[in-house]
Amino acid sequence: MNPSILKLQWKRREGGGGKTQRDYLDFVVDEKSLSELIGGDLVSCLGWFVPEENKKAVARLMLKADSDLPDNRFALYVCPECGELGCGAVTAVIEKIDDKIIWRDFGFQNDYAGEIRPLEEVDKIIFDRAQYRNALRSAL
């Protein structure tokens, strides 16, 4: 099985009607937008918030910082208004095995319910570690 290719691509969440317009970096896996696959009104954790938080998000996704949730789960898409996990987030387990980075067990969670609703439309994704890191560095 060939590893998937990760790219980051600018995307806009339109504003109006009480919504804030947000430009963010979407995860594009094998030329398919992950945000379109998962649906919902969320933005990725990259590109739209203050630079320091963007650096922290990249470090987490590169596994150079601790995950932002228990059980080695990482927020990929968050509330477009505040970024708070309490509003709900799409999360996944991210792990490094040899020269691969694996995203698996995708789910929707918030810190009110304390449970994870699996997102079965998203399968495990395996990336080549070097290509993955180069893609994430482009967010800096």
Oligomer: single chain
Task: Give the count of helical stretches.
Answer: 3
**What is the strand tally?**
9
Biggest sheet layout:
6 strands, antiparallel
Q: What is the typical, i.e. mean, pLDDT?
A: 93
* Structural class by secondary-structure content: alpha+beta
Molecular structure report:
The structure is a single chain. The protein is of the alpha+beta class and 140 residues long. It has one domain. The chain is 18% helix and 37% strand. The chain has three helices and nine strands. Strands 4, 5, 6, 7, 8 and 9 form a six-stranded antiparallel beta sheet that branches. Strands 1-2-3 form a three-stranded antiparallel beta sheet. A hairpin with a 6-residue loop joins β7 and β8.
In short:
By secondary structure, this protein is an alpha+beta fold.
Helix/strand layout:
Blueprint: E1 6-13, E2 22-29, E3 32-33, H1 34-38, E4 43-44, H2 51-61, E5 73-78, E6 89-97, E7 100-109, E8 116-118, E9 125-128, H3 129-137
Antiparallel strand pairs: 1-2, 2-3, 4-5, 5-6, 6-7, 7-8, 7-9
Question: Key features?
Answer:
single chain; alpha+beta; six-stranded antiparallel sheet; three-stranded antiparallel sheet; 3 helices; 18% helix
